[in-house]
Predict the structure.
Amino acid sequence: MRVDRNFLGWGIFFIVAGAVPLAVQAGVISGGVVDPWWSVWPLILVGAGISLILRSTRLEAVGGLIVAATFGLMVGGAAAAGGVPDLSGVCGSDESGTPFPTETGTSDGLSEVGLELDCGQVQVAMVGEPGWSVSGTSEGGRGPRIDLGQNSVDIQPADGGSAFFNQRVDWDVRLPTDPRLDLDFEMNAGSMTADLAGANLGLVKLDLNAGSATLDLGDVRAIEGFELGVNAGSLTVHLPQVSMTGSIEANAGSVTICTPPEVALRLHTGDSVLASQDFGDAGLIQDGDTWETPGYDTAATRIELRTEANAGSFELDPVGGCS
């Protein structure tokens, strides 16, 4: 007998989600045990990590099943105890910080920009002037640590603390529209808004963990592709008006994809576990695990993406529009 991994994930989710409140009602476990149901959310990241380690092996589905079971535990705990997850506490207070001195640098020879934020929010924008800059606020007025390489700049949290217990920061990062840049963003327990209008981009990477992000590529001049990952977070992506390839993976996360007019899509869903998507409602045609815009092969602008989810969801061109 062959077990469909998609149905297996749903089965684990529903079994756990239903068993928890039944066990509480039957007195098998006390309500106090499930009151802090939201606290098990780090298991989602554990499952996501296991999925990455075991990718392309026979045990690849294990990570997705851990995620499915964790979501079932959280939903079941919520049904028994009430309430919704609140992860804001892991990122400290949202009170205004103290401005730190603006950091600037030259764009001569620059080809790579890395940015890591562990707690707070960051705005990224492109400017039609040479050089880059970082301004903002933090507790105590401590600016980010900036490592400069021969062709790169790497913006990181100030030394000290850990990913989920650092002091909250607010950064404003400005990058030049020239030269061509590879971007590598990592967001942990934070939020990001990146408006990359006018950018000349190579590969764009984003690793989003327990946070939210909006990546606006709608008006880039050029882009080679992107690799986007969401773990226990939410991501909105505005696709460019140029042909490209890329991938988006959601582990216990949600992704909204916004497509410019006249851009044709080919989306490969793969062996997603406990996933949902509305590609058919958005007018795409299904062929196996691939969804296409009608007339894709003859379209002038084509975007091909791998869109996979483990306990995650994809929404394409929402009816109310993309904000």
